[in-house]
Amino acid sequence: MTNKRWTISLILLFFLFLYVLFHFVIATQKIERTVEQLQQTAQPTKSLPHFVLISQEFDNPYWRKVEQGAKEAAKQYDVNVEYIGPLRTNMDEQMKLLEKAIASRVDGIIVQSLNDARFTPLIDKAIARNIPVITIDTDAPKSRRLAYVGTNNFEAGQLLGKTVASRVSGNNKIGVIIGSDTSANQQLRLQGFQSIIAQHPGLSIVAVSASNISRIQASIQAEKMLRMYPDISVMVGTSALDAIGILMAMKNLDRGDVQIFGFDDVEETLEAIKQGKIVATVIQKPYDMGFSAVKLMVEHLAGKPIANEYFTATEIVDATNVEQEGTR
């Protein structure tokens, strides 16, 4: 009887062992399937190339358009684009962000080079670490960067000069507000503008001041300029917020006798053109810059040759076509 009970107990223990083993196997398989699903979900994100786009000023309307183009290209080409930049225009902060991107060993860097001499060593450092760099909006031609994407700034300055020369009459003294006196793109625009104005004896540039990419500073500098040179009859801005700042200065001085020419297509500028307060503006294609820079970086990583320079278009917007521009 005792042996029979012992046999039954062993049989029960055996079946209990089989039951536990069965559930253990089932649970293990479930865990393995869950882990596999998580890996499949995470893998595409981990494998996406990571690009960093470093802007001049994080929330500037112009740079937000660059970001939009870059993010649209990121969706189309299945990459991850991280948009960063200083809250206010600050070259040192930009350089720190570039250093951080290099240290993070990202797959590609798209950066505006405000100063060729200062940015070139950092760009070359990235290239030495096998991190491709494309400059955008402002070039660093002496660096080892892969390509420049953006406006031909000298030609854009010439276009601005031709626009002024064709729309004013008689003798005119001109005041110029540039975005930055240290930025290569602003200097090139100024040089292009000066080259055209020099061809017209009735036109002369009497003063140049920098706004530091700020409409408040543009207003302050324009007001100082107009007080110092009250016979200025034409004011020109070479960065996105300059024309609006000049308009603010004219309002403060209660002057309506100055013709204003601007740069870029921020909403306030276009509205002022509709109202006849600004004559014209040279517009760039910041969306195209962002899109093209990401596209070229993807092509480079795929082993395709890319051009050394990729110039995006510029055009004039005035009262004749401002309504069409506002609907784009």
Short description:
The protein has 328 residues and is of the alpha/beta class.
Description of the molecule:
By secondary structure, this protein is of the alpha/beta class. The chain folds into two domains: 48-151 and 286-313, Rossmann fold, CATH 3.40.50; 153-283, Response regulator (Rossmann fold), CATH 3.40.50. The protein is 53% helix and 18% strand. The chain contains eleven helices and twelve strands. The chain has helices at 2-47, 61-77, 91-103, 116-128, 153-167, 184-197, 215-228, 242-253, 267-274, 286-301, 322-326; strands at residues 50-54, 80-84, 108-111, 133-136, 147-150, 172-178, 203-210, 232-237, 259-263, 280-283, 309-311, 315-318. The strands form two sheets. A six-stranded parallel β-sheet has the order 2-1-3-4-5-11, sandwiched between helices. A six-stranded mixed β-sheet has the order 7-6-8-9-10-12, sandwiched between helices. Helix 9 links the parallel strand 9 and strand 10. Helix 2 packs parallel to helix 10, helix 3 runs parallel beside helix 4 (116-128) and helix 5 packs parallel to helix 6. The termini are far apart.
User: Care to count the β-strands?
Assistant: 12
Mean pLDDT: 89
> In DSSP terms, counting alpha (H) and pi (I) runs of 4 or more, how many helices?
11
Oligomer: single chain
Structural class: alpha/beta
Question: Spans of 5+ residues with little confidence (pLDDT < 50)?
Answer: 41-45
CATH class of the largest domain: Alpha Beta
Helix content: 40-55%
Strand and helix order? HEHEHEHEEHEHEHEHEHEHEEH
> What is the third-level CATH name, the topology of the largest domain?
Rossmann fold
Number of separate domains: 2
Tell me, what's the shape?
Answer: elongated
Largest sheet: 6 strands, parallel
